[in-house]
Amino acid sequence: MLDVLIIGAGLSGIGAARHLQSKCPEKTWRIWEARSQMGGTWDLFRYPGVRSDSDMLTLGYAFKPWVGTTTMADGASILSYIQDAAHETGVDQHISYGHQVTHAEWSSLDACWTLTAVLANGDTVQQRARFVHLCGGYYSYESGHQPEFAQQSAFKGALVYPQFWPTGLDHANKRVVVIGSGATAITLVPAMANTAAHVTMLQRSPSYVVSLPSQDPLPLFLGRWLPTSWAHTIARWKNIVQSVFYFQLARRQPAFLKRYLVGLVGQALGKGFDVKTHFTPRYNPWTQRVCALPDGDLFKALKAGRASVVTDQIAHFTATGLSLQSGQDIAADIIVVATGLKLNVLADIAFTVDGHAFVAGDAYSYKGMMLSGLPNVVLTFGYSNASWTLKADLIAGFVCRLLKHMDQHAYREVRPTPARPMTAQPFMDFSSGYVTRSSELLPKQGDHGPWRVHQNYLRDLLSLRFGWLNDGVLRFRRS
User: Fold this and answer.
1) Max alpha carbon distance in the chain (Å)?
2) pTM for the full predicted model
């Protein structure tokens, strides 16, 4: 019997383990990871230019300052950072790889979970645990969103999906089309344009993009005078407050922020570029994620003629590329389908509570991390408008607070339970395709109190680190 079983050995899972190590050293715990190595997203994604789209001062852990000079680090550097965080305190010795969890069964009589995992050889193994901390991310590793285009099989070139980038794919001197306009597409285009004959970003509609410096001068400046930990903390808080400010500005003055962001693109690309068509979204800022360009790399590729943007819709594939609804044809040797992710819920684990199937879509989310009716389970789900790790760190700290509180009062079960009826609202106030496509699978948020999901680190900091646990919603049970 374990006290805590952590599902997932990525950025969130390693962070959760470090919190347990330092704050609950008496607890027994282990990490089950479905893949053969740690790292999660940063081990899975291998496409050209893969990097963070959040600054590393906030994407990195609060307990382990990011010492690199790059603001938005490449995937290999982030993976190395995660591995170092796991190795330096022995977390990596507590990971069981190749454990794909399929079922979790709660027994109120025993006040514990029994989890079943399928191993790489097809065998199954079970583990009993008092508490489950889900750190498997928010999207499926098995498949992304892969729309089927008309006559897709006619294309004779290479059709590639970023989530499953082919090893050894050579795009040098090739004509490349990247379908999409989100964070993956705007990362791929400038990276591939360095050696490709030409790269075309084909988008159905534009996204907001903003150029950010690849190096943050503040920690470099502060590092001359202050200890590294102090410089990191000050610069980290500067970025946190800045992200909260811009998100609140987007909610209160969306028209102003839209003009500002589009205006920056116009300044970067010059008067001859059709910014209205290609970089003026139809939606307000931060109703979908704003994409960051390190040192304006996409703008540089466009101005140099190594890349171009086409805003149109696909009529059908051809043997040599794409035919668009406008009548234009685009020749391609490689087509990259960067059309987004496929969300999963509860790490695709089938949960049952005392023999009854638990349906996440019918539940309400407690503070964005626990679900009504689901005992002794915490789900790590980060921010859509800021770094994922900010929320993951808060949740991992809350888990430790909660476990200590339960030990102090001899509680064996905690179950969020609404005290009064609520009006259901979407879990995420976000219009990105990967969210809208999975809206029915996601839990709901309520219209009041702890059932609201706040995309605001400062509010969550007060609530999760200092909020009252006996709030009348968390129902505790001893026997």
Assistant:
1) 72
2) 0.94
